[in-house]
Structures are given as C-alpha cells and as structure tokens.
Amino acid sequence: MSLKILIIAASFDILGGQAIQAERLMRHLQQEPSVDVAFVPINPRLPGRLRKLQSIKYVRTIATSILYCLKLLRTVPKFDVIHIFSAAYLSFLIAPAPAILAGKLFRKKVLLNYHSGEAEDHLRRWPRSTRWFIKMSDVLVVPSEYLVRVFAKFGFKASAIYNLIELDKFVFRERKPLRPIFLSNRNLEAHYGVDCVLRAFALIQRQVPEAVLKVVGRGSQRQTLEKLKDELGLEQTTFAGRVEHEEIIRYYEEADIFLNASRVDNQPLSILEAFACGLPVVTTNAGGIPFIVSHEETALMVPVNDCEALAAAAMKLLSDCNTATTIIQKARKESTKYRWELLKDQWLNLYRELVEKKS
C-alpha cells in the first residue's frame, strides 16, 4: 500500500531549521518506492503580477494566507497523512492551525511536528488556542527528548524523532592543533545570543590577537551587532549575512572552533553539523542543548549569558590538544545518531500506523 504524505512547512528557500528538515525529509521520502509525497509551503508565492502584493506590508500577510488556505483545500484531500512542521507563538496560528483544520475537515490523519525551543513559553502564554489545535492533531512529534518533557508538563504526549543530518555532505577534518579561527552560525536574533559570542571573542582576542571570527546568519539584530563589534574594537571579525545551506559547509570546513551562545534553544542543527565535520563546539546550556551535548565529552558547555565562561572554554580548547581531540572524535560518533538510515523506519512506521488507524 502506498503511503500518501503531504508535508507542510516553510518554503525551502527560507534558511531555517524547519525548512531544512522538511526539505531533507521530503527528498529522502521521494526515494522510498512505497511513499507518495508532496509539499505545500506555508508561504506560497503569488503568480505573475499579483506577486507585487507580497511586497506590501500587511497586504502581504493577507494575500499569502488566502493563497495558502486555497492550496490546502485543493491539496489535502489527495493525501492520507498531513505532516505539519510548526514553530511557536503567532506563527503557530498562521501556519499549522489552518493545515490542522483542513486535515480534520477532510478526515485526514494530522501529524504535528513541533520544533521550537520556545515551546514552554508558548504553551504558557497561549494556552487555549495552542491546546485546542494540538488536541485536534492525531500525533505530536518533536525532535528532542527535551521537548517531550516540556509538552509532558502541560499534559501532552509527544514522541521524539531526531533531526536529520546528511553526514555525507559534511567532510570530517581532524583539527590538530586547533587554530584560533571561530565560527558562529545562528540567525541574528536576540535569543540566539550572538552578542555574547562577540563579547566572548573580545576576551579571546585580547589573549590571541590573530584570532578570527566569522558570523553567519541574518536577522533583526544585524545593525546592533555590527555596532557592538565596533564598540568592542574587534579585529578580523566579519558578518557573512545569509549563506545558502549548501554553502555553509565551506564555512564549517574553514573554521576550527564553533561558538554558540543561545539563550533559548531546542536541538540546533548547527551544533550537530559542527559535530559531523569535526568542528569542536563551545556552547551555552540553553533549553534542549544538554540533551544533545555531553560536557567535556562531545563539547564544552557553559551557563547562559556567561560570556567570560564561553571565552575561557574556547581558550581551553586552544591550549589543551588532548581535550580538543577527544571532543572532536566523540562528537563525530554522536552525529551518526541523526542519519537517515536510523530515522527512516521511525517515520515510515509512524505514517503506516496512522494510515492503519484511519482504515
């Protein structure tokens, strides 16, 4: 029996964890002979001249939402399982909620795949609307045991299926000895703590003047962070802006230490990708990070907002070759948990169970 799966997520041209995961999942499912899979973006592009409407504030949201709902009504009836990727807050109501309603309208099985590290705050601040839509879903899937525990606090049962990492695309390079070349690869939003990375790097550069920092990502904090860079007097510090996911591999290869200072997080792909290519990680212990990182085994972890500790941990890697080598090797082994060969059966079995329940 063919599994007819409809994936709903942000369009693949958006650089974000959910879009990347949706694209990878769909591409691998397309290679399965027993699966018929299609995709509906939550942010479809209007055709022809109508696309100009999407450049007008407020009008853009209305026009895109109308087109999105029309696509759902036309597409959902053709599939058995509606696999919906979800973020938090208002995005939850704009994107997953209409898809859940469409799934229920046409009596389809709805799989809600929630990814946001802000889940606890979201569930506490938006209790009624969020609970109602989650209860309408047939199954709740999250990418980490951390989110399983968060949802359990609010009375929801969630199952964990890890994020997918394509190990064959990340060339492993053993860095010995480590050079003071640092990488930050998070969107430039306050909760990702790139400001703390800059402050930590300022402390590092006082001790190692030739140190280099490359900041990849875009976001609302770009100007604020560039101003902070100037205030701190940082040298050899560049902002690369938006980098396509295929291109980011080059940045991983060129760097020798990955710095992450997020304040809110779940299961950051950037850390897992750093593991895969042999890039040692220094990170805060925000949210679900301790569920994928073992301190002094697969990475070095420090408290949230502790820029001095972040810098000290980075300096430890530079000065302690044995610790760095051990972390690199164990992190590479850890990254193998996230390959398709281990995740495939989890997804296919779950889809089959949902379809069998329907029949």
Can you characterise this structure?
This protein is an alpha/beta fold and 359 residues long. The chain has two domains: 3-164 and 339-358, 3-Layer(aba) Sandwich (Rossmann fold); 167-337, Rossmann fold (3-Layer(aba) Sandwich), CATH 3.40.50.2000. Helix content is 45%, strand content 16%. A six-stranded parallel sheet has the order 2-1-3-4-5-6, sandwiched between helices. Strands 9-8-7-10-11-12 form a six-stranded parallel sheet, with helices on both faces. Helix 8 (194-207) runs parallel beside helix 9 (222-232), helix 8 (194-207) crosses helix 12 and helix 11 packs across helix 13 (321-335).
Describe what is shown at a glance.
By secondary structure, the protein is α/β, with parallel strands linked by helices. The strands form 2 sheets. The protein has a 6-stranded parallel beta sheet, sandwiched between helices. The chain has a 6-stranded parallel beta sheet with strand order 9-8-7-10-11-12, with helices on both faces.
- From the structure provided, what is the oligomeric state, counting identical versus distinct chains? single chain
**What low-confidence regions span 5 or more consecutive residues with pLDDT below 50?**
none
Helicity range of the residues? Answer: 40-55%
Gyration radius (Cα, Å) is 21 Å
The CATH class of the largest domain is identified as Alpha Beta
CATH topology descriptor of the largest domain: Rossmann fold
What is the typical, i.e. mean, pLDDT? 92
Report how far the terminal alpha carbons are from each other.
Answer: 12 Å
Walk across the major sheet and give the strand order: 2-1-3-4-5-6
What's the CATH H-level homologous superfamily of the largest domain?
Glycogen Phosphorylase B
**At CATH's second level, what is the architecture of the largest domain?**
3-Layer(aba) Sandwich
- Overall, the morphology is globular
**Largest sheet features:** 6 strands, parallel
Number of E-state strands: 12
Number of helices: 14
The proportion of residues in beta strands is 15-25%
